[in-house]
Amino acid sequence: MPNLPLSPIRTGGRSVRFFDQNLNVDGLSFNIRRSDRRKTLQITVERSGELVILAPPQATDSDLADFVQEKLVWVHTKIEEKARLQQRAPVKEFVDGEGFLYLGKSYRLRLVDSQLIDLALKNGRFCLRSASKHRAREVFVSWYIRKAQAWFEKQTLQCSNRMDVNIEEVKVQDLGYRWGSLGSGGRVSFHWKAILLPPRIAQYIVIHELAHAHHPNHSTKFWTKVEQHLPDWRARKEWLAENGMQVEGL
Ligand SMILES: [Zn+2]
Question: Right CATH number for 137-249 from 1.10.150.390, 3.40.50.1110, 3.10.50.40, 3.30.2010.10?
Answer without folding.
Answer: 3.30.2010.10
